[in-house]
Structures are given as structure tokens and as C-alpha cells.
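Run log, item B.
One chain of 294 residues. Sequence copied directly from the ordering sheet:
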Amino acid sequence: YIKFIKRLPDEIGKAVSSSNECSIESTVNLSQNHGKVSFVRRGISLEYSYECCFKLFEKPSIQTVHFNGKGSFNVSLKKLKAYSDECQCELSICNSNPVIGLNLIGVACYRQGIKCHLSEFKEERFRSIVMLPRNPRNSKKAGTGSSEDANFLEISNSDRFSFVTDLEICLAEDEDESWGYRLRDLLLSAHLWSVYTTKEWADVELCMSRDNVNHLSFPAHRAILSARSPVFASIFKATNEKKVDVEDMEPVLFEDFLFFLYTGTVRNTENLPDLWPVAKKYHVKTLQNISEFA
């Protein structure tokens, strides 16, 4: 599975002082080129932190999650009953705009450190009942309470409820025999980057010395680097050493360079001008052309 966490703003919806219910929609973008990939049913699991807070007379906001710019899901809380100290809500996730070739097969959330699977009640729609405590006045900041409160975002307004959890949205490829919707593997770059992030089957360490004090290493794969860079190919042909020194540079910049080698995609366009000398040094012509006039 691909897993990564994207934090949302502390307040998803602004409080509205009215007795009528209202809601404010929010959006978040997820990409497949991060984290781990599972080869079970060629699946993808997108994990991110979901936060929602609302007043007693407000309708919780609906959040739209855009996946890779090609599909979206709706994540919503629906108030069922409100009591003096807690509120009963229905957490639901539906595949509102399906990604072609991928089905929503499961959703889970983490409550007090325990993974809880949501029940499927319609095709590609999942839901679960959650109980949210009313936030006490002058509460401690989130994360400072006991482990039992780890799923709740604490706010110092007594008439507000809040909920925070890590959601895991699982997709899998269609199992039918119709493959006419595409002529290329949409998961190729995700699979290749996953072997870098997980360090599986890594057979070389790219070593960098920062100011002769801090030493960094980047586990990588000779075959991929050699196929993408003739300079790396020459280095690995000349030596079988497990550790190879590389030019000192900002670690984030070097990993952006590796990201391009593994996926063929630019991860951070703001770093393109700084990537040009790196691409030139290792003779990565495509990245040279992309970054030369950035």
C-alpha cells in the first residue's frame, strides 16, 4: 500500500453563530507517489489525518479528497444524536468520482491506536458510528492528554465537538478482463518509488558528507540508477563497493533528484533551477532540459 499523512489546517470550518445548521466544504489533494505499495490485488492505500470540528448547532463540514487529480472521495460526519456530554455521529466515505480502473474496497480509521474497519453499506460506500465528547473549557492542547484522548482535537469552547483520526482509504484494480481504459501501467512510478522509500532490495548506499561532520546515506538500487544515468552506470561498472560518495548538497534536493530518477516525475518545481547542475553532472538529459529554463 501507498501510505502517507497529509495534515490539514487546525480548523476545517469556521464557527457560525446561528441556530440554523450550515456546513463548509473543504478539499485535500492526495498523490500515489509516496509511501509503500502492496502487491495484493495491486492495491493502493492512501492514509492521511482527517480533522473536523463543529458547534452544537452546526452541520459538520463535508471534505472532498482528490486522488492524483483523477478522482475524488467525499468524507463526511453526520450528527445523529447530541447528548449533554457527547455527540453521536456517522462517519462515511463514498467514492463520489471514481478513478478509472480502481475500485474503493475498504476504509479504516484509527481510534485510540486501534485500527477499525468501516462497514460497507452500499457499493463503494463505507460508514461507522463514532461518539465525540464535548470539548471542555480550558482544555489542554491536543496530544498532551492521555492515550484515550489521542483521537480528539481539543478546543477550549464548551459548545464544540471535534474529531481527528488517521483514515486509510484502500483502492484495488478492477479484476475483470477489460483493460481498454489504458495503455500504460498507472502504478509503475508508485511501485518504483516505494522500493526506494522502503529500502527493500537496496544494494548500494549513496554517501554524502555534510561539513565533514554529519554523514548522510541514501540506500538505492544500482540497476535503476544505471539505467537512468550513464555517470552512475560508469561508477558501478568500475566498483562493486557497497558505499559510493556523491557530491555534497542539500539532502532534500538530492532526494528530489532521486525521485525523478525513479519515477520520471518532478516532485518539487520550486527546486528545478537547483536541479539543473545535478542533472548535468549525472547526464540526466531529460531533467536537464526540463530544469534549464526554469
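Observations after the first pass:
- The domain at 201-292 is CATH 3.30.710.10 (Potassium Channel Kv1.1; Chain A).
- Residues 1-22, 137-150, 152-157 have pLDDT under 50 and may be disordered.
Flagged for discussion on Thursday.
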